[in-house]
């Protein structure tokens, strides 16, 4: 629960949450008074909250638009051609990659500021092939033309999304499964939240009764 999966652009929000947690702990979760409150409430003497840590993949953390390699890929972009949607069919993906923005330079390379589309498409190619490295990818594609690389990229994206789409369809066909997952998840979240909130109240002196006796 302390490692939310977020994008690189959400890191600042995680840092704000971490600062808030540290401040709370400095104010309320130290000293003998805190220990006495925890003992009276029958809870462990430990900080009320866990500092969140961003879980961001090293490669492909920031994927850019297919129509502009300098802009972030976004589901809110009015142009559907700017992005790959999880449920896009192979034919749709093939069309989007075939028509996506590139340049007139032969060969592919990473991190050339003059070639943002090359970097972006290579990042996508790497992201949909877990276990491969930049060096491995570059060795494969460095001398390719765009006409050679785009079909390879399309095949890699389709292969990566296929099991996800199959699982989506299977879940959608199971009556009530989504409602059950939501209900069970909500109940589990409530239990964790109640325990955490009670610990915070104890730390601040707003609650003294053991958790088992609370109504």
How would you explain this protein's 3D organization?
This protein has 215 residues and is an all-alpha fold. The chain has two domains: 8-56 and 176-213, no CATH class; 80-173, Tyrosyl-Transfer RNA Synthetase (Orthogonal Bundle). Helices cover 53% and strands 0% of the residues. The protein has seven helices and no strands. It has helices at residues 11-28, 31-41, 90-99, 116-127, 134-141, 146-173, 177-204. α2 crosses α7 (177-204) and α3 (90-99) packs antiparallel against α6. It starts with 10 loop residues before the first helix and ends in an 11-residue tail after the last helix.
Keywords:
215 residues; mainly alpha; Tyrosyl-Transfer RNA Synthetase; 2 domains; elongated
N-to-C SSE string, H for helix and E for strand: HHHHHHH
Tell me, rounded to a whole number, the average pLDDT: 90
What fold name stands as the CATH topology of the largest domain?
Answer: Tyrosyl-Transfer RNA Synthetase
**Sheet/helix structural class:** mainly alpha
Assign the CATH architecture of the largest domain.
Orthogonal Bundle
Report the count of strand segments.
Answer: 0
Amino-to-carboxy terminus distance: 26 Å
Which descriptor suits the 3D outline? elongated
> What is the CATH superfamily classification of the largest domain?
Tyrosyl-Transfer RNA Synthetase
Number of helices, where a helix is a run of at least 4 consecutive DSSP H or I residues: 7
> The biggest beta sheet, please?
none
Given as residue ranges, the uncertain stretches (5+ residues, pLDDT < 50) are none
CATH class category name of the largest domain: Mainly Alpha
Q: Please state roughly what percent of the residues sit in beta strands, choosing from under 5%, 5-15%, 15-25%, 25-35%, 35-45% or over 45%.
A: under 5%
């Amino acid at each position: 629960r302390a490692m939310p999966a977020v994008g690189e652009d959400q890191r600042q929000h995680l840092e704000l949450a971490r600062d808030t947690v540290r401040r709370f702990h400095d104010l309320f979760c130290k000293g003998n008074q805190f220990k006495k409150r925890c003992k009276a409430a029958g809870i462990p003497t430990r900080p009320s909250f866990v500092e969140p840590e961003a879980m961001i993949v090293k490669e492909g953390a920031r994927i850019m638009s297919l129509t502009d390699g300098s802009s972030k890929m976004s589901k809110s972009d009015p142009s559907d051609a700017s992005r790959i949607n999880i449920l896009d069919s192979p034919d749709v993906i093939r069309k989007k990659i075939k028509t996506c923005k590139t340049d007139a330079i032969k060969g592919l390379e990473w991190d050339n500021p003059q070639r943002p589309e090359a970097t972006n498409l290579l990042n996508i190619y790497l992201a949909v092939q877990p276990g491969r490295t930049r060096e491995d990818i570059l060795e494969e594609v460095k001398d390719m033309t765009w006409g050679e690389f785009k079909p390879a990229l399309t095949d890699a994206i389709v292969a990566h999304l296929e099991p996800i789409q199959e699982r989506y369809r299977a879940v959608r066909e199971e009556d009530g499964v989504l409602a059950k997952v939501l209900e069970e998840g909500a109940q589990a979240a409530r239990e964790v939240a109640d325990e955490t909130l009670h610990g915070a109240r104890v730390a601040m002196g707003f609650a003294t009764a053991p958790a088992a006796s609370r109504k």
